[in-house]
Amino acid sequence: MAAHMNIQTHDRLLIIDFGSQVTQLIARRLRELNVYCEIHPYQNVTMDFVHKMAPKAVIFSGGPDSVVREGSPRPPQEIFDYGVPILGICYGQQVMMQQLGGKVEGGKISGGGGTAEFGRAYVKPRGEKLAVLDGWFQNDDDHEQVWMSHGDHVSKLAPGFEVYGTSPNAPYAITADVSRNFYAVQFHPEVHHTPNGAKLYENFVRAAGFSGDWTMGAYREEAIRKIREQVGDKQVICGLSGGVDSSVAAVLIHEAIGDQLTCVFVDHGLLRMNEADEVVSMFRDNYNIPLIHADESELFLGELDGVSDPETKRKIIGRLFIDVFQKHANAIEGAEFLAQGTLYPDVIESVSFSGGPSVTIKSHHNVGGLPEKMGLKLVEPLRELFKDEVRALGRELGLPDSFIGRHPFPGPGLAIRCPGEITRQKLEILRKADAVYIDQIRKHGLYNEIWQAFVAILPVRTVGVMGDGRTYDFACALRAVTSVDGMTADYYPYSHEFLGETATRIINEVEGINRVTYDITSKPPGTIEWE
User: Which residues of the chain form CATH 3.30.300.10?
Assistant: First the structure.
């Protein structure tokens, strides 16, 4: 179970997760309103847990199950007597009706004959005005677009509930028991297909008495106090990659404990052009943070020589990374803690709703297994934060924008942008091409619109003509995607002028490439990286 952080100084909201794929979005919407919330799988939510967390309000998420099925997910019955406002969404609405004396009928999914509703729908107001809907319907005749996704439906309201909104296939689209502050909707206000959904959350948390006190300034102070409490006078080592998460974690921990922190930067020879120098000078010179620059490129490139299978590459890099990190960490006397830039989505995924991790698409490169192996305790000061909050914390800590706004870069580095065998020559060509490509993106002012952009060098040589001569050089693929969280992604729609200009520059400036392509695959079905 995820370690629960008891943040006594903040109003807290508990989201009980019944397995919806968009539960994280609920948390995102609330965090945007400066409300501190935590997602916990329904199995972990006992009344004992609720009393410890002391939430000011509770939200029941959607979910794929059917409440008419015996043994389907439920919150504890006593939560309805706990005395705080509750908002039920989709499956959450059905749970409330079922447990409070209403009735839910199975739709096609659970073998009943009811009407399912998927996709866009329009909800109209009905009956008296509901405070939680203030400003949601623009006027009384209005109808508001929402996103429906339900197979079952409520057929009888629980005692005390009234209807405040209906849609063609959901007569109980919005219901509430105002006297107990219970609200339930059959649609998903958290998704962007419900354009005014954020307003509904805003009204709910205001009605629940939240003051919106969850700010990065407050988080920074609290995190510093917690790090000092946890670490005492012991030494901490931090694996620094130069990415946003590990950089922000390192600067935050350094602010808390100063020279008790040593960063280890493993240079595996698979970094972009000048990257190692940038990271080292940033941390040593700007922040005066003790830093070991472990240049182990010979070791890594030696072991990767001639390897072409993507999983084998990842495993070699992961294993060597741990060996190298351990060797350098052992040289730091009295190190008892390992710092990691774990984020909240990683925490949620590791305590997934079904109780098991989701399917492994590809093995991930981190310092997995190290803490047990070395007997180290973990310091994870970002484990409550989403990526955009980490960036906000970075700004709060004064990190330069060039670091805060950096595109994600994979742990195995250029190895997975080099399909086929890895050679030093191919890596050199790739570095130069990547530098030209990123320079183009920056020159055209597109860097911040793109989630991630890179060049992949293909294991294909093609015939070309340069000057009067024939060339036989590598082809490369440009990749650029837009995404919110890396879970899904779409290719970036460059203009043909941009692509033409970039291809010309790469072919003219990078010896070894004579053909440039642009990858227009979205995720899914493709992944963002090529391997």
Answer: 423-518
Select which of 190, 202, 384, 531 is catalytic. Answer: 190
Tokens of 479: 């990749």
Cβ count near 398 (within 10 Å):
11
Domain 423-518 has CATH 3.30.530.20: no
Q: How far is CA 383 from CA 2, 219, 249, 468, in A?
A: 10, 12, 10, 58
Who's near 14: CB < 8 A, 6+ residues apart?
37, 38, 40, 45, 50, 53, 55, 57, 58, 59
pLDDT digits (tens, 9 = 90+) for 351-361: 554 443 333 33
pLDDT given for residue 137 in this prediction? 63
Annotated catalytic residue, options 37, 38, 40, 90: 90
Q: In this model, does residue 112 exceed pLDDT 50?
A: no
Residue 119: the pLDDT is 73
Q: Which of 153, 188, 254, 268 is catalytic?
A: 188
> Which residue spans of the chain are classified as CATH 3.40.50.880?
12-207
Residue listed under structure tokens 């004959």: 113
Tell me how far CA of residue 224 lies from CA of 127, 250, 345, 347, 382, in angstroms. 50, 12, 22, 20, 11
Fold designation for 216-404:
Rossmann fold (3.40.50)
Residue type, 305: D
Q: Is 188 a catalytic residue?
A: yes
Token pair of 85 as six digits: 């406002």
Q: Kindly give the pairing relationship between strand 490-491 and strand 469-482.
A: antiparallel
State residue 107's pLDDT score.
65
pLDDT by residue (tens digit) across 203-253? 899 989 998 888 888 889 889 999 999 999 999 999 888 788 999 999 999
Both tokens of 279, joined, read: 């990271």
Rounded average pLDDT over 197-201: 85
| CATH class assigned to 12-207 | alpha beta
476 assigned to active site: no
Beta bridge partners of 456: 477
